[in-house]
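Below: protein 1.
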Amino acid sequence: MMKNFLSSTQVNRQMNSPLYSRPAWLGIITIVFIAASLPILNLVFPDGHVLHMSSYVISLVGKFMCYALAALALDLVWGYTGILSLGHGVFFALGAYAHGMYLMRAIGRDGVYQSNLPDFMVFLDWKTYPWYWSMTDNFWYCMALVILVPGVLAFVFGFFAFRSRIKGVYFSIITQAMTFAFMLLFFRNDTGFGGNNGFTDFKRILGFSVTAPSTKAVLYLITLALLVGALVLCRAIVTSKLGRVLQAVRDSESRLMFIGYDPLWFKLFVWTLSAVLCGIAGALYVPQVGIINPSEMSPGNSIEMVIWAAVGGRGTLIGPIIGAFTVNGLKSWFTTAFPDLWLFALGLLFILVTLFMQKGILGLAQKLWAQRLPTKKDANSGTLKEEKA
């Protein structure tokens, strides 16, 4: 009974989907190769050359890849485990702040006030760093914070929430309340995180200029590599027995408990892993965009992550990546051409996807592919009949 339940036909259909076929993976590898060539075009060809790729495009695509990594992390808990989080923005921002602390320390005495303290601390008449800034001048210590801070918060929050059997809309509401509470906390000047303005005006990372084209290229390639690595990791998880248990949690948690599984630790694992991936995305976001402030923790940002996953196609891993690029590409165009209409366009997009494309862009593509296959088979059978005649 247990074996049959964990090997449902729905899971098997997904494993044999054209989305995971060899041509699909070849297509992904081709896209990755093209994406990896963009910073090379920026460095090799001079400005004005037909093959030159501007630094603006490199930074924009790098930012979109950070968003795509966050969308992938959300899809792991929402699409495959059925846990709808409206607070993933807090994990993204905490990873960004952890890296931002190192970047602020790396400014040294090059700030406006020429002090060893960040400018905002000098302005507020701080004399020394608070205790939680200790050792943040060490890059690898801050990278550990990028993983540990979102991970520990997610583990503690998830343990009490999942142990109390909080799920569905109630879980979504408390995650939204969590990110809103953290946003209000970080807006305060006395917390030591820059208040409204947050962290900005970064100078160096590991001794290299943050604004140098070569540094931007390296950050871009690291982001691409981690996005691909996260996709492979998530793919390995969802196609394993662990992934089948996670999907069983999504489809029928009570039945899973009846056959002897405790959903708590499975949900806690995937929830914590998702938070860590979001934190890494935030850490990659900060040096490429050049700023992090409490607005990244706003509930609206977390809701946008949900929209990225829904538009691309939740429960597919690749779909949220497509959704993040699609929605943010539209946002970049709308906020330039029609800045007052973007929120209306975003709402309309979400309504249209909910009504007519429940499986998102990728689901629509799979449906069209499935309709195309019988036509090919019929054409081949017709040809064989003509040859026999």
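Below: protein 2.
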Amino acid sequence: MRYSVDQAYLYESFRRIVSVPSPVGYSRELNPVLAEMAAELGHAVTYDNKSTAYITIDGEDNSKTVLIGAHADTIGLMVRCIEANGMLKIRRLGGVSFTSMEGETVTVHTRDGRAYTGLVICRAHSVHVFEEARTLERDEESIRILLDEDVHCAEDVRALGIRNGDVISVDPRCQITEKGYVKSRFIDDKGAIACCYTALKYLAEQGLRPKHRTVFAFPYCEEVGLGGAYVPEGVSEYIAVDIGLIGPELEGNERSVSICARDASIPYDYDLITRLINCAERAECSYAVDLYYRYGSDAGAAVRGGNNLRHAIFGMAVYCSHGMERTHIDGLVNTTGLLLAYLLEA
């Protein structure tokens, strides 16, 4: 049975979620949006001490509890120090690739709630001025934030309320083309959150309950390897919905849902992966099964944390992961279809 997914809602929910900044550990702006969207579908949101947002739904059988995890954090930056000229030095939050970030607009979020935009630049920022502008390695030592403010020294910056440790978010620059291509930063993993909410909408409209008690979890530290380390009591299966990859030796593509059999360090649960493959075939989802060399997930973190559960991962494949990513609406639809098949059939 192929599930009929509301593509308009899928698009709109992604636009809504991806527009809200949520670098690693920074939940204050996105959690209220997740709660509002959940309320629109008739659900309440709860939180743990790590600010992970949860939506819990009773199943046809509550003797078993499964968890669907889609991480809410994105890669980002943090103010490392303020230089004498008023520029900001930075540290990474997660696996930032500066080769794709130079020239992006960013926002500095102060702890008292103010926000200031700026530009990611290299200290050798102009080929007309610096001999090494083309050759200097882009890393934490060479990258700076140029604030869009009239600042000329460190004291000018401090007067704005900016301090070391402030979080810096990057403009997602979301675009959706007429041919269905989705181009944006942070499809990883806000595309997956949109799929989760679209599945919740389908269940609500069809008056359906999942087969088992289901917990949807949206943690804020996947990009540093900790998102699934804590698992609520009673969960026996952890499904991470996260990006698939595209490249040599990989069958994944933008229009399919990718199922990961092994990541950089561990294989995923054999029987659960087999069930997901069977679900994809019954739901007529275009899918691929791949192994990832440089990759990890919240489901893997859950297992490493010693939790007694089965674990698996699937999601829409993207080009240019951790950069300006691209996928297709078909990949998001197939991901939502597999999610529904797992919830209702597995």
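Residues 76-170 form a domain with the Elongation Factor Tu (Ef-tu); domain 3 fold (CATH 2.40.30.40).
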